[in-house]
Write a structure and sequence with these properties.
The protein has twelve helices and 17 strands. Helix content is 33%, strand content 20%. The longest helix is centred in the middle third of the chain and has 26 residues, at 132-157. The strands form four sheets. Strands 8-7-13-14-15-12-16 form a seven-stranded mixed sheet. α1 packs parallel to α11 and α4 (112-122) packs across α5. It has helices at 11-23, 65-72, 99-106, 112-122, 132-157, 167-170, 195-202, 234-237, 282-286, 313-328, 346-365, 378-382, and strands spanning 2-7, 28-31, 43-45, 51-53, 60-62, 77-79, 84-88, 91-95, 187-191, 208-211, 225-230, 247-257, 267-269, 278-281, 293-301, 308-309, 332-334. Among the domains are: 2-72 and 192-244 and 311-382, Rossmann fold (3-Layer(aba) Sandwich); 97-170, no CATH class. Bound molecules: flavin-adenine dinucleotide (FAD). Flavin-adenine dinucleotide is lined by residues 7-13, 31-34, 39-41, 55-59, 215-216, 231-232, 250, 307, 336-338, 344-347, 349. Belongs to the UDP-galactopyranose/dTDP-fucopyranose mutase family. Residues 379-391 have a biased composition (Basic and acidic residues). Its cofactor is FAD.
Length: 391
């Protein structure tokens, strides 16, 4: 008999498996329907021997000392600060928009004060900022909105920014200095030997069994367990009782090129010209030396693996109906990006899993007084997400 059946071997499932096995001596079965561990953070060496991220570039960044120190028990790190260029009007300019972006784009020589005045002069007055369009035009005006945000967002989300919640573009800062780092978190690094190696170490414990290529539906009636931790899509768990929660998906087109370097930055965004949103060159993230280089194009699409919950009010309301069901389901704990229908970064999911672990142990110490827990977010929400990844 397993103490826990954990559905999903991504960050949420693997962190909980590790804690429960090593700290609480619980017997854990982790199942994943994919043929690998690490969830969307999975990386592997391609046929040319270049380390690539199967599901698009994953950059680790966090402001949480606890999360960084926790993961540091399972990996060494390569210091890495992410940088992105956007292809606009035939030029490659820093993204998020900063002083250099404006000067290069318009052939100007503004200083920080002048560029602040420039933004003020082009910003539109928006009485109540509600949508993603409002956020941007009220900060940098319509022209920059059109050049950097409008079409990128339409490609990424299949919707106009005026139809999307303000949270999508609120993530993207505008800078009046020359800081061209994509993130400004305290801790920014890549796992030295890759994410999958880190997950192998997380799951390497005699109390943990891992079954891959296994949908939990196929084993749930045969394998005895006491409690379940579910990190898959919450609507699927409840057989889509209230309808499907909308997700945006991506198609990844991986290529290996017979050249040592290809891009002028680790990632180049294409806000306008192409069907893909961005190209990533993996060696720039991993620091690997290799005579060839591997890149990936991202093509957003409506159908496919669920990647991004679509941030609209009606979807949040639909999720709340599922959350009520989840809260009433005894002995099943919902955690992670799909089970709580939230756009979480990796560090937030780790924080969410550590919080749930704490509650589970408090609960097992005093089961009589405490109800079952699902999808706790309190610590996670303290982590300010500064991910400008998806304008
Ligand atoms: C393109 C892209 C880029 C990203 N870039 C970054 C980044 O740069 N930095 C960052 O911090 N975060 C990034 N993220 C977010 C990051 O991927 C997530 O925060 C993290 O992977 C979430 O972990 P999770 O365990 O909640 O979910 P997942 O990693 O999705 O794991 C859930 C697992 O559950 C399994 N599963 C689902 N249903 C079943 C079932 N019925 N039976 C068995 N198994 C099942 C799935 O196969 C999956 O492996 C990115 C995400 C995407 C899509």
């Amino acid at each position: 008999m397993f103490d826990y059946l954990i559905v999903g071997a991504g960050f949420a499932g693997s962190v909980l498996a590790e804690r429960l096995a090593t700290r609480s001596n619980k017997k854990v079965l982790v199942v994943d329907k994919r043929n690998h561990i690490a969830g969307n953070a999975y990386d592997h060496y391609n046929e040319d021997g270049i380390l690539v991220h199967k599901y698009g570039p994953h950059i680790f960044h966090t402001n949480s000392k606890d999360v960084f120190e926790y993961l540091s028990d399972f990996t060494d790190w390569r210091p890495y600060e992410h940088r992105v260029l956007a292809s606009v009007d035939g030029q490659l300019v820093p993204m998020p928009i900063n002083l250099d972006t404006i000067n290069k784009l318009y052939g100007l020589k503004l200083n920080s004060f002048e560029v602040e005045e420039f933004f003020e002069s082009v910003a539109e007055k928006v009485p109540v900022v509600k949508t993603s369009e409002d956020v941007v035009v009220s900060k940098v005006g319509r022209e920059l909105y059109e050049k950097f945000f409008r079409n990128y967002t339409r490609k990424q989300w299949g919707m106009d920014p005026s139809e999307l919640d303000k949270s999508v573009t609120s993530r993207v800062p505008t800078r009046t200095n020359r800081d061209d780092r994509y993130f400004t978190d305290t801790y920014q690094a890549m796992p030295l030997h890759g994410y999958t190696r880190m997950f192998e170490r997380l799951l390497d414990h005699p109390n943990i069994k891992v079954m891959l290529n296994t949908d939990y539906h196929d084993i749930i009636d045969f394998i005895p367990f006491k409690e379940m931790i579910f990190t898959g899509p919450v609507d699927e768990f409840f057989d889509f009782k209230y309808g499907k929660l909308p997700y945006r998906s991506l198609e990844f087109k991986h290529e290996t090129l017979n050249t040592e370097n290809y891009l002028a930055a680790p990632v180049v965004n294409y806000p306008n010209d192409n069907l893909y949103t961005r190209i990533t060159e993996f060696k720039a993230l991993t620091g690997q030396q290799h005579p060839k280089t591997a890149i990936v194009y991202e093509y957003p699409k409506a159908e496919g693996d669920p990647y991004y919950p679509v941030p609209r009010l009606e979807n949040a309301e639909l999720y709340n109906k599922y959350k009520k069901l989840a809260d009433q389901t005894p002995n099943v704990h919902f955690v992670g990006r799909l089970a709580t229908y939230k756009y979480y970064n990796m560090d937030q999911v780790v924080a969410q899993a550590l919080t749930l672990y704490k509650k589970l142990t408090e609960k097992s110490e005093d089961t009589a007084r405490k109800p079952a827990i699902s999808g706790s977010t309190e610590l996670v929400d303290k982590l300010v997400s500064r991910d400008p990844a998806k304008p």
